[in-house]
Amino acid sequence: MPQTAGTLDSQQKTTSRRPAGTLYRGNTGMWSWVLHRITGVAIFFFLLVHILDTALVRLSPEAYNAVISQYQTPIMGLGEVALVGAIVFHAFNGLRIILIDFWNAKYQRVLFYVVIGLWVVTMLGFAPRHLINVFSH
Fold first, then answer.
1. How many C-beta atoms surround the C-beta of residue 43 within 10 A?
2. CA distance 68 to 72
3. CA-based angle 68:43:120, to the nearest 5?
4. Fewer CB within a 10 Å sphere, N or C end of the chain?
5. Dihedral sign, Cα of residue 129, residue 132, residue 135, residue 137
6. Are 28 and 112 in contact (CB under 8 A)?
7. Over the stretch 33-67, which tens digit does the pLDDT of each residue have?
8. Which SS3 state, helix, strand or coil, does residue 104 take?
9. How many CA atoms lie within 13 A of 1 on its CB side?
10. What is the pLDDT of residue 6?
11. Domains of the chain, residue spans
């Protein structure tokens, strides 16, 4: 039985539709989630390295001093700015998540922009002072 064009169009429309509400599709909620996970993983790996290099003190104080002297470079100073940025974003976004859980989810987008604003203000206060110290030595 031949299908008419109208029937074919309606079949294509129903088979190509995705269920509503299952994908973020690039909204602020998705970016908040992605950035929260990335910063959390970065902080975890920093803590792992920090524990390992601190453990060198017990094994060999000379090895510990050698590792610490490698950390006092401008590249590591930039890494410290990135680390502080990750910690600050993760902390502010965690507070945003707590507010959404206990308050009202309809303000999620506004709170995300508040987090970004607070992060920018905090980093503008920290980064210049830290980088002056890093590059003046």
1. 15
2. 7
3. 105
4. N
5. negative
6. yes
7. 999 999 999 999 999 999 999 999 999 999 999 99
8. coil
9. 3
10. 55
11. 27-135
Our measurement of the distance from residue 20's CA atom to the centroid of its chain's CA atoms, rounded to an integer in Å, reads: 27
3-state secondary structure (DSSP) of residue 79: helix
Residue with tokens 């610490």, as numbered in its chain: 68
Overall size of the chain counted in residues: 137
Backbone angles phi, psi at 136, to 5 degrees: -90, -10
Model confidence, pTM = 0.77
How far is the C-alpha of 102 from the C-alpha of 54, rounded, in Å?
A: 39
- The C-alpha atoms of residue 86 and residue 59 are separated, in whole angstroms, by 31
28-34 mean pLDDT: 88
For CA atoms 52, 58, 60, 66, the dihedral sign is positive
107, 100 in Cβ contact below 8 A?
yes
Which class is 27-135 in CATH? Answer: mainly alpha
